[in-house]
Amino acid sequence: MLFTFIARQMARHSDEISVNRALFEQVVESLCLTDSDLGLDHEQRQQALLELYEAGGLTHFDDDRLVDLAWSAAFYRVCERVYETRRQYDKIVTCYWRDPCRSELTFSYVQSVWVDQCLSANERQALINAVLDALCQLISVDALKTARLLVVTLSVSVNRVIEELDNDDATLYSFMSGLFELSDIQPLDPGVYERYVDIMCRLGHSPTAFLRSTSGYRLAETIDICRRHSATDALVYLMERCGDIRGAFDLLFERVRTAVSEETLLETCVDDVVGLLHRGSHQLDQADVETVWFKLLDVLMDTMRRLKASIGGPGEVVQSVTRRVINAMMLHVPLPAVLQRVLASDDGAVASHFGDVRDVLTGLLDACSYERTLLSTCSRLVAQDLLHDITALILESGRATSVHSDSCLLCQRQLLFSHSQHDLVCFRCGHVAHRTCLVTSRGHVTSRGGWQCSLCRPRSRDTSSSSSEVAAVCPSTPPSTTLRSSEQLNSVHVTSVDRLRTTSRCPSRLTVLAELAQMDHTRTNSLVQGQPRFKTLPSPSSGILHNEQFALRLAVPPHQ
To answer: What is the distance between the alpha carbons of residues 435 and 450, in angstroms, rounded to a whole number?
Structure first.
């Protein structure tokens, strides 16, 4: 403690305290002693020596001697200060990962040094070599950060890292696990994926999840690796991906045959086989489909007979699994073939004891009854919905539609006084068109083959299209009563009606209302301000209401 106190006082008051050189070296050596009998805290002694060095109290002390003493005492921060003055960044990396308190900071330190523009090419190469030399230690600290540092920051080839760790499968597995967790790396060589699968198989890890999550490997080479290490689950997935459903079934079937004595394992194996056949039955011929399903069923039936002969009855697990297999195979195999296979014995004859298959047949019939009930219920619901929709369509088709237009929306010809023999098509929106105009235009046909109003079609895209569909098709000739009433109109009346229709069609109704409102507003202002009325009224030719055709002509009534 005395030497620690002297070192700190010398660091704080370097100009006021003078110490003999021999005593000074004794102070430094005492701080660097690793003997625990002194009762000095390691961090306190390192901090005291660091303060002394930073205060310039060790200028006359040999740096190499100081580094040797500090390295032997594990004073890595003191070594870092000395190496930093020499720009030996590669040795500082060693100081970081050797320090248990700062090993996690190694990655951030290398990244901060690497981005320095003043770093020379030799210094960069020395930094890469230092990281590669400490590769195993860095991977043990954090494999993900190590992979990111090497591949992303330092741009080191993945194959070079694999060569460095070629003799250490556990460390290489950790590094590659962190490597494949990175999301910002470039596509890797297929050999890297295959090497990772090979290491996983050698270490006893299942590569199935990894194979499902990526696709950068080659199927043929990966299948050879999985077959060499007997990785059945991964091999089944790869063979199914290649389309070899029969080969994948054979692998799982062998597992089922070896698991018939263990009920829990048998249930899992059978579920895997059923899932495989559900996914791959459409890739097989009907004969192959029946072969694989019956092969699985025969094993389960034989197991039930053997258990009944040995313990007096089939096991509940085997019976439940057999029932599930039969229910599953009914989706791919005809029911008569399934019943015939269940009732037949090994030599092809009908089973002598009905009790052997009674439970299986009961479950089979229950499943058939349930499916029939489900099918009938669904059919009844569909029929009710169809009846409701047809009834609504019939009511909609018989509903009257008011016509809001008296001219064809395509050719603009009048419909009221048209004596042509063309049929008229009335839409539910109230617009009317000639049938021949709709046929000629060919641009108003809906996806269902009917006609659609061209005026209402743009705004009916966001809503229901029923408002723009055809409501009725009728002849253009009006009824006989209408003809008789129209024939009573003379030519003057007909001309007046046409003139009124033509004039009212040219300006919009909004224009007419605006003119009326302007006239009323002008008249009111004139009365309030006391101005003459003729100064505010518009000219006779300024609006349609002042047209001569709308002028009221008075005449003396004729004498009776």
So the answer is: 12
| Predicted structure pTM score | 0.60
325, 274 contact by CB (below 8 A) = yes
The pair of three-digit structure tokens given for residue 179, joined into one six-digit string: 């490597």
Geometric angle at alpha carbon 354, from 353 and 356, rounded to 5°: 75
Cα–Cα distance, 92 to 131 (Å, whole number): 11
At a CB cut-off of 8 Å and minimum separation 6, what does 451 contact?
Answer: 425, 427, 438, 444, 445, 469, 470
Residue with tokens 């966001």: 462
Q: Which phi and psi angles does 464 have, rounded to 5°?
A: -70, 140
Distance from C-alpha of 35 to C-alpha of 338, rounded to nearest angstrom: 84
Distance in angstroms (rounded) separating the CA atoms of residues 172 and 176: 6
Q: Could you please report the per-residue DSSP string of 357-374?
A: THHHHHHHHHHHHHHHHH
Task: Please give the chain's pLDDT, 560 residues, in tens.
Answer: 455 566 556 656 655 666 566 666 777 777 777 654 445 578 878 887 787 777 666 667 788 888 888 898 888 998 999 999 899 999 999 999 999 889 999 999 999 999 988 889 999 999 999 999 999 999 999 999 999 999 999 999 999 999 999 888 999 999 999 999 887 777 889 999 999 999 999 999 999 999 999 888 999 999 999 999 999 999 999 999 999 999 999 999 999 888 877 777 888 899 999 999 999 988 999 999 999 999 998 888 888 777 776 765 556 788 788 888 888 888 888 878 887 777 765 444 444 455 556 666 676 677 778 878 888 899 999 999 999 989 888 887 777 777 777 788 888 787 765 555 567 888 878 788 888 888 877 656 665 667 778 777 655 444 444 555 565 555 544 443 333 334 455 566 666 656 665 665 555 555 655 666 666 556 555 544 544 444 444 444 445 555 555 555 555 556 55
CB neighbour list of residue 472: distance below 8 Å, 6 or more residues apart = 401, 425, 426
Q: What's phi and psi for 22, nearest 5 deg?
A: -65, -45
Strands of 423-427's sheet in order across? 432-434, 423-427, 470-475
Residue 265's contacts (CB-CB under 8 Å, 6 or more residues apart) are 259
Q: To which H or E segment does residue 471 belong?
A: strand 470-475
Alpha helices in 506-548, H assignment, sequence order: 509-529
Largest CA distance in the chain: 155
d(CA 534, CA 521): 14
Q: Which residues contact 475 (CB under 8 A, 6 or more apart)?
A: 421, 423, 424
